[in-house]
Design a protein that fits this description.
mainly alpha; 3-stranded antiparallel sheet; 3 strands; globular; disordered C terminus
Length: about 260
């Protein structure tokens, strides 16, 4: 199904189910698994050297994000590339959740939120520096640095969600997270917006540190607008024949 070199290592400190989920997520995000291909639980279990149970749990979680599809009696398949129409809908949802979350976190997060966001930004900044200074490293090492960079970007947003102290926002944010990986998976030339994102995150952080909710919301909204513009430039042209059902079928609604 896939070469051993494309299988990310299962890091021991994590719970088994989480490690399996992250391993399959990385395989999907790196396009190690072909779009539209069938995901057989027994094959994945042998590949990852685990029992079928954590693989089944991981695929169910991934179906909720839209990275994989599940059909009764047919099983799981890798979702097709995200369409331009889906991207627009995704960004509408992101604006609602992200702008709302930063406003709530500014009010509810307190000093703990500000300290955590400073730390998250520092981690992201270091990841960006490592990625852009990685001259002469192997393709595997550069891929690992790119993954670390992407995770540090997502972590910055996760800190905001966590400090809303609202678990329902967290559930909705988790559902969107997989779609963000799908956007990157669907990019024709690879989305490389880390420097732009870092600058925009700095504007959000500055507003949070100034305890200016309105400014933080405006900075987040601008960030979302810019993310959509950058992603739109890298997604395949719209299929005029796509139907509404086709457009929404990749996402199983977890809430």
């Amino acid at each position: 199904m896939t070469s051993s070199r494309s299988i990310p290592p299962l890091e021991r400190p994590q719970a088994l189910s989480e490690r399996v989920y992250r391993a399959i997520l990385q395989m999907l995000a790196r396009s190690s698994l072909r779009r539209g291909s069938t995901l057989r639980i027994d094959v994945l279990a042998r590949t990852l050297e685990v029992s079928p149970t954590p693989v089944r749990e991981a695929l169910a979680r991934l179906a909720a994000t839209g990275l994989v599809r599940h059909e009764a009696r047919k099983g799981y398949t890798v979702a097709p590339p995200i369409s331009a129409k889906q991207l627009r809908k995704l960004m509408v949802a992101r604006r609602l959740i992200e702008v709302g979350a930063i406003g709530i976190a500014c009010e509810a997060g307190g000093e703990a939120f500000r300290a955590a966001l400073i730390a998250a930004f520092a981690v992201q900044s270091a990841a960006v520096d490592r990625f852009h200074s990685s001259v002469g490293v192997s393709a595997e090492q550069r891929e690992a640095l790119g993954w670390s960079l992407m995770e540090s970007d997502l972590h910055f947003h996760q800190v905001i969600f966590d400090h809303t102290h609202n678990r329902f926002i967290g559930v909705m944010a988790d559902a969107l997270c997989g779609q963000l990986h799908r956007v990157r998976q669907s990019a024709e030339s690879g989305i490389s917006d880390d420097l732009h994102a870092l600058t925009e995150h700095k504007a959000i952080l500055d507003a949070v540190l100034a305890e200016d909710r309105a400014r933080a919301e405006a900075a987040m909204l601008l960030h979302m607008d810019n993310v959509e513009k950058r992603a739109s430039a890298d997604i395949a042209p719209e299929d005029d024949h796509a139907t509404i059902d086709d457009d929404d079928s990749a996402l199983s609604h977890p809430f």
